[in-house]
Amino acid sequence: MALRPLALIFALVSMALQLGAAEATDPLRALPALPKPLPGVAAATQPGEMVRDFAPGVQVVLGKRVILTGSVIMDQGPVDGLEVLACLASGKTHEAIVRLAAPDGHTARAAFTAALGLEKEGVPAPESSGLPARGWPLSVTLEWADPDHPGASLAVAASSLVRDRSLDRSFPALPFIYTGSRFLTLDETGLDGKPVRHERFMLDSTKSIVVIFDEADALLASPFPDSGSDKHFEVNSGICPPAQTPVRLVFAPVELPLTLVQALDGSLSAGGKTLGDAELEALLAERYGAAATPSQRAVAVRVDPASERAVDVATRRRLLILAASAKAWVVPVFVLP
Predict the structure, then answer these.
(1) What are the tens digits of pLDDT across the range 136-180?
(2) What is the pLDDT of residues 300-318, one digit of tens each?
């Protein structure tokens, strides 16, 4: 019996060492530090562009952008972790940065279909699964009125509104992954007590438009590699507009600086040539290294829809390790044809 406390101490020490080793090998921790992101001047509407009102709180520029209006509801914290970047009015407002004015999920999705031609559903990231989402990358920019210059607006990549408190770093510009939420056939009990089968659009239930933490029914999935847990995410209060500030979220298709093609066996190619680790590292250094200034710090990995999703996990790990070796801050996102 006297050995039990000692055995417990050894077990706790062993666990701490294992956690420390895991933390030390976290690929994100090994990526180089970047300058802190700062808001810039919002892009002006281009000549000839027509911004159309699509629905309350929703505007579109056909073929180019979707604009969702709302307001900031959280400009710091939360202590227990940040899950959502933007939600609808009755969504997860206790753990979201922006509350949007769009009336419902159907309307929001219809705007993306009408303006950007996004008709198909992607493959979401189930909660706590560790599986990256598969879909189509969109740049997401937050805009708000410049309090010091009437008539002007400020803008920042929406991903930069998020900090990783465990790394003590904010994130650079990253695209979010459009998956379109999903329709599910549900069996429920009707008022007469009999089973009723019907189809439900899940975004109208979750009301999460853009998420930081993995949520299968969001419209846009998280680009962050460690999004299976929300405890380490918090608002980047250094640049987030104050609570109650009216804002616009602007969504646009984006071509990433590098696209790789992932084969069924996990091998990666570019331009029809299969690449080894040394070649991949050189490409990452060229496109995302110290001398590069990419508008988005993500590499697109085009996947075969029939491929196993476990291959995505291995590819993500491989590319993050190579990025660290190349001294290039970049994360992979998984793109469907």
Answers:
(1) 999 999 999 999 999 999 999 999 999 999 999 999 999 999 999
(2) 999 999 999 999 999 999 9
Write the DSSP assignment of 38-58 as a string of letters. Answer: --EEPPPPPTT---EEEETTE
The label of the residue with tokens 């331009």 reads 271
Q: Return the DSSP state at 245.
A: -
Secondary structure letter of residue 225 according to DSSP: T
Beta bridge partners of 138: 176, 253
Alpha helix stretches (DSSP H) within the chain: 3-24, 27-30, 105-116, 203-206, 277-288, 309-325
Q: How far from chain centre, in Å, is Cα 48? A: 31
What would you report as the CA-atom Rg of the chain, rounded to the nearest whole angstrom? 21
CB environment 40-77: b (16+ within 10 A), e (fewer): eebeeeeeeeeeeebbebbbbbeebbbbbbbebbbbee
- Give this prediction's pTM: 0.89
Count each helix (H run) and each strand (E run) in the chain, helices first: 6, 22
How many beta carbons lie within 10 A of that of residue 28, not counting itself? 19
